[in-house]
Amino acid sequence: MSEMLTNEPVQSSEQTMRGLFLAVLKRDLLLSYRRRSDLVNPLIFFLMVATLFPLGVSPEPDFLAQLAPGVVWVAALLSTLLSMDSVFRSDFEDGTLEQTLLSPQPLFVVVLGKVIAHWMLTGLPLALLAPVLGIMLFLPDGGMGGLMISLLLGTPTLSLVGAIGAALTVGLRKGGVLISLLVLPLYIPVLIFGTSAVQAAVTGLPLGGYLALLGAMLALGIVMAPLAIGAALRISVSG
To answer: Is residue 7 part of a domain?
Structure first.
């Protein structure tokens, strides 16, 4: 009987946090769906980079195949960064963010739900669209799997790290440039290991080590980034 009494609060707390997470996730997905232009812009930018790059450099297949991993990853990085300013902006402008900070709801869960919603609307479509860009840039078939897996592991980390910069600049009118200055240096490890994983897949070398590093950075980001985002939001809103 005593065990049942001690387990009930734990279960109810877990259910409350799960319900809060799903509610935040559903809300942000619905709001983003109403602003369809915000969803399409990163994808258009992603395609434009891959389309214009051969025109500006060289259309030779062998040359493009060598540069394809880096080009796709840089395009995905910049496309993710392009949409980061809107993660907390609308909530800040209508007062929802301030009410969230004042409410007793766990900020960690709220922030994590908003970041995952952003990834589902930007990073996930980019990862699914990446093989099309790989074909356009003559990436060998052996690198397609490594490209998609590395993007699926790396783009959530880009969203988590980028949300820290978005939280720090949410109170500024023109925070997009500052987000780039704050976040781009932190994106470099993800870019290096993501590109290396694709290159290893193309050359037939084992890529498990690179994917493990990307997974480790993602795990660290899930644990630490929401805490940093919450602190940054409190500083921005209170300031």
So the answer is: no
185 found inside a domain: yes
**Is residue 105 one of the residues assigned to a domain?**
yes
Residue 92 lies in a domain: yes
Among 140, 139, 153, smallest CA distance to 193 is for 153
How confident is the prediction along the chain (239 residues), in pLDDT tens digits per residue?
Answer: 344 344 444 456 777 888 888 888 898 888 877 777 677 888 888 888 878 888 888 788 888 888 889 999 999 998 888 888 888 888 888 888 888 888 888 889 999 999 999 999 889 999 999 988 888 888 988 889 999 999 999 999 999 999 999 998 887 776 667 788 888 899 999 999 999 999 999 988 888 999 999 999 999 999 999 999 999 998 888 76
Largest CA distance in the chain: 74
Three-state secondary structure call for residue 87: coil
Separation in Å, CA 49 to CA 54, 71, 77, 115: 9, 8, 11, 25
CA count, 13 A, side-chain hemisphere, 162: 33
Residue span of the structural domain in which 208 resides: 12-238
pTM score, whole prediction: 0.88
Note whether 234 and 164 are within 8 A (CB): no
Number of domains in the chain: 1
Q: Cα(137)–Cα(125) distance, rounded to whole angstroms?
A: 18
